[in-house]
Structures are given as structure tokens and as C-alpha cells.
Amino acid sequence: MNTMTLWHISGWELAALAVAALLVGFSKTAVSGANTVSLAIFAAVLPARASTGVLLPVLIAGDILAVLTYRRHAHWPTLWRLFPAVAAGVVVGTLFLMWADDGIVRTSIGAILLLMAGVTLWRRRGAGTEDAPDAVTTRAGRARARSYGVLGGFTTMVANAGGPVMSLYLLSAGFRKLGFLGTSAFFFLIVNLSKVPFSAGLGLIDGRSLLLDAALAVFVVPGALFGKWAVNRINQRLFEQLVIAATIVGGAQLLLR
């Protein structure tokens, strides 16, 4: 499928995509859940399935900037524990995309995001403090990592919406702000790069779509720089509240479209 033949993008729609690219940069270096707004904008301007292929290279550009910014703060034991489950989720997501239409994709991802946000709010209300990142080595922690990993792989493959799921997992595991950003930066760079062959095989990425990506990637840089400036001015509690709020907004947008 040549995805670009499906689109007739106006100047206003291109401007909306540029704003979404700015938000991608900001989300990668400041508030991870904010990229659900970008997902919603891309799905509004472009066909929902095709939008995932266009958004993916833009996300990778943001991931590279995030890794360069927070590479010293990654928690690699958590990453290695997540990757097998995420790989299984990506495979399931690929199979899902082979038959699901746009409406099913939006509804499924929106419902998952709202469910995960609800679970996280319930867990945080019931506990005064969260576990330290090393607590994921317990049996319960490993089970939680596997469940979030599969959901993260599925949602990131289907709609590039794995950010909120993994954000909720990292918050539930007790990650502080910089550890959260460093761990998620490497996680999504590796996962998003691994998704490229699957997306290309499904016809969601082609040479012409990459031309649009090249234009939009320019807007990721100022968004990332602004996020790097802003994150030092956001306290931990506000940071966590913003991540959860962005997840809820993104999930609701997908369900209501």
C-alpha cells in the first residue's frame, strides 16, 4: 500500500502535524505521556493506520535526542527485564494490525490507556510511597514487568501508544524523574527501531512517507530543547501528575473520535 496516495494534506493540517512533532520532542525530554496528544493529532489528520507509519520515524528522532540528553540515567536491569515481554507484544500487535480497521485500533488503545491509568491511580492511592526500581526483581515485580511489557509492545506496535503504558509502569516501579526519562529514552529508541521492519512490511512506511517525516523531524528539535529546559523546573509530584493526566487525555481522545 502506498500510504501517501491516501492523503491530501492542507496547509493547516501540515501545521497541526508540525505542532504534534514539537510535542513529540517535548514528551521525550520532559513529560512522556504528552505524546498521546501527538498520536491523536496524527490520527486526526491522516488515516489512523497510516498515521502510525508516519509518526514512527518522528518518534525515533525524539528518542535519539532523549538518549543524548539522559543516557547516564538509564536503569538497564529494568530494560533487560522488559524486552522479552515487549517483543511478544510487538508480534501480537503486528498480527492485530493485519485485520483490525481504524475504529477497532482507536477503541482498543484508548481503552487500554484508560485502564492502565486507573490501575496506576488506584495503586498510588493505596501506597504512601512506591517501591524502588530494584524492587522489580521480586516475583510480583517480575509479573508486573511482563504484563506491562506485553501491553507496551502491543500498544506501541498498533498505534505508537506504548509511551503511556511504559510511563505508568516506570511510575509504579518507583522511578524518580531523571531515572524515568533515561530508562524510557533507551527503551523507546530500541523498541521503535525494532518496529521499523514490521511497519515497512505492513506498508505503513515507504519512501514518500519518509519525505514528510524529514520535514516534521525539524520541529522535534526545538520541542526537545524546551522539554530539557522545562524538566528541571517541574517537581517530582507535578511530573507524575502530568504523566498520568496526559495518559488519561490521550486515551479519552482515542475513544471519543
From TrEMBL:
Membrane disposition: Multi-pass membrane protein
Any single Pfam family the record assigns to this protein: TauE
InterPro entries: TM_pro_TauE-like, TSUP
Annotated coiled-coil segments of the chain: none
Keyword tags: Cell membrane, Membrane, Transmembrane, Transmembrane helix, Transport
Descriptive protein name: Probable membrane transporter protein
Cellular component GO terms held in the UniProt record: plasma membrane
Presence of the UniProt keyword ATP-binding in the record: no
Protein family according to the UniProt entry: Belongs to the 4-toluene sulfonate uptake permease (TSUP) (TC 2.A.102) family.
Subcellular location: Cell membrane
TM annotation in the entry: 49-70, 82-99, 105-122, 148-172, 178-198, 210-231
Keyword Lipid biosynthesis: no
